[in-house]
Amino acid sequence: MTVEQSDQDRVESRAHLLPEEAAVGSDDPQAQAEAILAESDMRTEDPDAAPDTVLERRTSDQTVVAVEPPD
Questions:
Q1: Which of 4, 3, 27 is nearest to 15 (CA)?
Q2: Which candidate, 4, 63, 8, 70, places its Cα nearest to that of 34?
Q3: Residue 69 lies in a domain
Q4: CA-based end-to-end distance of the chain
Q5: In the predicted structure, residue 6 carries a pLDDT above the cut 80
Q6: What pTM value is reported for the model?
Q7: Does residue 71 form part of some domain?
Q8: What does the alpha-carbon distance between residue 57 and residue 30 come to, in Å, rounded to a whole number?
Q9: Mutual orientation of helices 3-14 and 29-45 as an angle, nearest 10°?
Q10: How confident is the model at residue 17 (pLDDT cuts 50, 70, 90)?
């Protein structure tokens, strides 16, 4: 499978509207899917691409303070 075929498969799969999208409708589900996937790919390649989005990558031991159980 070529990259082009893979991209087309992704678009076709995403073009099936989610229930929320189907409720409001879509003039062009194919174009909508292409736009959603393009933005998703951009954000995957550059996490800072969305200026209003803060993406933190931490492990649980960096976020939780360990509490010792009482004796």
A1: 27
A2: 8
A3: no
A4: 61
A5: yes
A6: 0.55
A7: no
A8: 32
A9: 120
A10: confident
